[in-house]
Amino acid sequence: MSKATAKSGDDGAEILLGHHFAQPKLLTEALTHRSAAGARGKGSNERLEFIGDRVLGLIIAEWLIERFPQEREGALGPRLAALVSRPALAAIAEANGLAALLAVAPGESRRGVRERSTVLADALEAIIGALYLDAGLGPARDFIRRVFAGVVDQQFTPPKDPKTALQEWALKRALPLPAYDVLEQSGPSHAPQFVVQVKVGDAAAKGEAGSKRAAEQLAASLLLGILPP
To answer: Are 7 and 66 within one domain?
Structure first.
């Protein structure tokens, strides 16, 4: 990663976040994919993704409590899960041009790593983590509410878990229940990656995530997106 590339990515991210960093190293780290980091991933955005995930969950939960004051936990939980899911985060990251700001090793870049949903989702959480550490909860809240506003506005009713929704879709059409298969498992034990395929009849979709369950959920969500209503 050249200094010029890093600077360009940082500038673009500051515009996206609406914040000028007092600790610019935080933002550079948030935009650094593991493949472009040092030995054993040191300096990558994994640590910031860890804290960003928690900050995001807190702010979205706070927002839902405020927006749906009459709903119980049983309805708020699915809303939260859908909003912080990998597909939702990846779509928001893509819509805001985050892929172009990431520092990725040349070989991984040619393989399309920047466009992977897991990479985009992790990067979004990482820049949230960096923003929180540099400026606190207020600016993080402002950014999250701005980029998530459209998605939250579309949640008229609590969403269903993608695997449950796919199962119900199959049952209504007297089809066999969805079948999930792990096609690939890679990565170290502390950061595994799973590729899972789900099939219903002749239709199939694949999901990739850091856990088997998350990959299944992503695959189910993607398949629901291509099946007729």
So the answer is: yes
